[in-house]
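Regression test case RT-17, inverse folding.

Input:
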């Protein structure tokens, strides 16, 4: 919509799926009658932004272009409980894929203090973990599978 339109409200902007849009356009180009634009966007239900691109190969034709995610997220952590934790923790994961992966717990200096196996199923997974004794404090937990990863903060209590 035209930004000068009095009905335009950027807080009500929607993306191509009809979800609220929160993102930033990073570039656009027009060359040889082909238009391309790219942007980052946080989609509803995802914690990390994704990169999108729109390409219209011939701006003279009335047909629209194609919008696609360059690297759509394959999985996300829905919840971690309890957090703070002692030695037992449960992750709920929503995934588009089934995969065997790993969970790494690392301290604030980046040193890995524990590595555990993780099995993700398509749809919603519940992963129960027993973490070896670790000194109380703040840590990061990285869930890795299928060439991607998600990082969350966790607290370990005495």
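Golden output:
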């Amino acid at each position: 919509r035209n930004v000068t339109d009095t009905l335009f409200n950027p807080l009500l902007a929607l993306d191509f799926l009809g979800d609220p849009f929160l993102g930033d356009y990073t570039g656009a180009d027009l060359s040889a009658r082909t238009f391309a634009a790219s942007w980052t966007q946080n989609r509803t239900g995802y914690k990390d932004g994704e990169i999108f691109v729109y390409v219209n190969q011939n701006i003279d034709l009335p047909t629209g272009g194609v919008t696609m995610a360059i690297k759509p997220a394959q999985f996300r952590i829905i919840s971690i409980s309890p957090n703070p934790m002692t030695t037992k923790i449960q992750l709920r994961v929503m995934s588009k894929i089934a995969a065997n992966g790993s969970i790494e717990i690392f301290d604030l200096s980046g040193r890995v203090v524990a590595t555990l196996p993780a099995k993700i199923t398509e749809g919603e997974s519940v992963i129960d973990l027993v973490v070896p004794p670790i000194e109380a404090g703040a840590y990061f937990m990285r869930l890795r599978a299928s060439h991607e990863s998600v990082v969350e903060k966790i607290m370990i209590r005495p």
